[in-house]
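Question: Now follow the chain.
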Amino acid sequence: MLKIYNTLTNTLEEFHPIKDNEVKMYVCGPTVYDNAHLGHARCYITWDTLYRYLKFKGYNVTYCRNVTDVDDKILKKADDQGVEPSDITDKYYKSFVESMKNLNCLKPDIEPRATKTIGEMIAMVKKLEQEGYAYSIDGDVYFRVEKYKKYGELSSQPIKDLLNGARVEANDKKENPLDFALWKKDELHGYNSPWGKGRPGWHIECSAMSKKYLGNTIDIHAGGADLAFPHHENERAQSECANDCTFAKYWMHNGFVTINKEKMSKSLNNFLTIDDVLRKYDSNAIRLFILTNHYRMPVEFNDLALSSAANGAKRLINSVAGFEVKNEYDKKAIEEFESAMDDDLNTSKALAILFNLADKIKKNDNAQIMANTLVYLGSVLGFDFSLANKEISFEELREIVKPLYDEFNIDKNSDPKETIQKIIEIRKQARNDKNWAKSDEIRNTLLKYKIQLNDSKEGTTWQIL
């Protein structure tokens, strides 16, 4: 039986969908004003894994992930660049889609844009106003937080504590400092509405899109831990008041990616884009790096961890090279895998089962069946086995090696494989001289160009990432 941690109750709960065998799952998607970063990779790999696993369990899943394409940051960027907001959102949505594809994330079943759901947002705000849950002032519409008695439950923050200094926006027009915007006056970029020209508040977008495409009540609402408050708290409040029913049965949140113990984010300017990381590591390495850690825990980014993940991913993927995969599996491994994943998506434990299969293949212990099982279960975690022993052409290798000729003063006409071997010899001499700084510098230089060195008792080998 699948058990998941429900943020709303702060407990591990057995998963029982509202309707037998059907799962409606909503994940807060990107605000498309910039390139996606490693924090987004952590989020969407996590929920891609959940989506894959629910399908593996036999559920009929409808996965909806929105696209926020109307937002303050989008409008500011468009104004700064003198272009239309749609020019910004189209550019970065395409970039996001490409990044998700390169991470081997499955496309959601539904991917609605906020700008295509404006009518539904207006209708929801009108309903809230009619029911006394909202009020309008000078073209702005606010939600009356104190009228929703469950406010603060999701983020485990009583209203009293929130009023004493949590993330509350000061605004003299509001009846209560906690009240949040459902609709914002905007005569320049706005849409026609009963309150004049304006645009939706951030939170109402997801409520309206979830209702339109999945219905009033959904099984799972997921997203990053930073969204629990205020975004998900506000979503829950307005949805339950507008629809007079439970909004989501299970709330799930993934932990942050950190750099030097700080959350990776655009506002802190300490982020690496997905494209940046993919220049050095393939999707399997990134996925292994993410899934080695439990989804609710923070993940500390560093090159050493990703380099280790790259080695592990190669070991998994290459262990099945040369096998023609068939539909004959090791039942014990499947049972162990399912037991691990049923425990709140314990991907670390599930990965250990995959590595055990890889070891058995290497020892020729019922290798064909173990290879079949590894591909079957590895695909549930989103690994791309088409990368097994991927051949690289002479021309591709020469392009990779080209910058190294000058860096290491090597004849530009040298064979690229011989060039790498010469650099390995230079590093070997540095190690013999106990010049560890130079040895590390050479390793990192090669890694920058996606050439990874693997040291062993037999010597040093290399591979292209």
